[in-house]
């Protein structure tokens, strides 16, 4: 997204801070509201709907009010899915542009009419549909796949921090307007240790004793993704990657479609 943001060094971190702050406050308000609406916790957990949150809505607003509130919840989930697919498309295109994915030349193509990575968009759409279809045949498999999202996201965030700490003396980093100053090293290492700890916990089975039915198979999915990524890098990508192709891509776009000050797509 930084490629399309004016003054990204300042506005990017500001947007992240604002999103975390607003989400934290709204999430806290929602949690408190849900707790106030709890009546009989055991009956809510054993609800015939299979959705405790939906039962809370029904208890609080009745059939009509509960249905309306649940409709809003579905709407929020829909827009969340759209936002997630947008982010996935951006990442798929970025990785393909740097030849880090299979069929990178196809996924990184820009449609000459829309000037957008249509191939990457459809790849994400079809891949997402395929993942959700797995739940039709095996809920346990789908749960294992979706359970990897939280630790995978956390590890992807902290990997950048770890790389910075390991290579800060070998690579020249240019600090932006948002820095941690003299506290950077301490805060970075605390965040690394915390994410490694919480990611390990997220791989634990949810209940004991552990059986084949309640085992958390997210670790298996994570191991497969890591093995595939390492194999792809070793077998193909490491010999093909020649650096980001952002400038090359921009040079192919007509001048009238570029922002004069930032060299990015309007």
TrEMBL record:
Record has Transport as a keyword: yes
InterPro entries per the UniProt record, alphabetical: AA/rel_permease1
Transmembrane segments: 20-41, 68-87, 118-138, 144-163, 183-204, 216-235
Top-level taxon in the UniProt lineage: Eukaryota
Membrane topology: Multi-pass membrane protein
Sorted UniProt keywords: Membrane, Transmembrane, Transmembrane helix, Transport
Gene3D superfamilies: Amino acid/polyamine transporter I (1.20.1740.10)
Any one GO CC term of the record: membrane
Molecular-function GO term, any one: transmembrane transporter activity
Location relative to the cell: Membrane
Official protein name in the record: Amino acid permease
């Amino acid at each position: 997204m930084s490629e399309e943001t004016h003054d990204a060094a300042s506005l990017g971190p500001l947007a992240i801070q604002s999103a975390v702050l607003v989400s934290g406050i709204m999430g806290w308000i929602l949690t408190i509201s849900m707790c106030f609406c709890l009546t009989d916790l055991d009956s809510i957990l054993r609800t015939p709907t299979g959705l405790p949150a939906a039962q809370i809505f029904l208890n609080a607003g009745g059939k009509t009010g509960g249905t309306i509130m649940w409709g809003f919840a579905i709407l929020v989930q829909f827009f969340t899915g759209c936002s997630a697919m947008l982010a996935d498309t951006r990442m798929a295109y970025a990785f393909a542009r740097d030849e880090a994915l299979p069929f990178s030349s196809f996924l990184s193509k820009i449609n000459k009419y829309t000037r957008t990575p249509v191939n990457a968009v459809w790849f994400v759409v079809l891949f997402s549909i395929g993942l959700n279809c797995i739940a039709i045949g095996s809920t346990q498999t789908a749960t294992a796949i979706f359970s990897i999202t939280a630790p995978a996201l956390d590890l992807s965030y902290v990997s950048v921090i770890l790389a910075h700490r390991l290579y800060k003396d070998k690579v020249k980093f240019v600090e932006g307007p948002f820095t941690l100053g003299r506290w950077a090293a301490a805060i970075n290492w605390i965040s690394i240790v915390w994410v490694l700890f919480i990611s390990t916990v997220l791989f634990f089975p949810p209940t004991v004793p552990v059986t084949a039915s309640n085992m958390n198979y997210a670790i298996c999915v994570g191991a497969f993704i890591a093995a595939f990524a390492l194999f792809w890098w070793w077998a193909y990508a490491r010999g093909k990657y020649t650096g980001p192709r952002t400038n090359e891509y921009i040079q192919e776009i007509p001048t009238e479609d570029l922002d004069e000050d930032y060299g990015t797509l309007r």
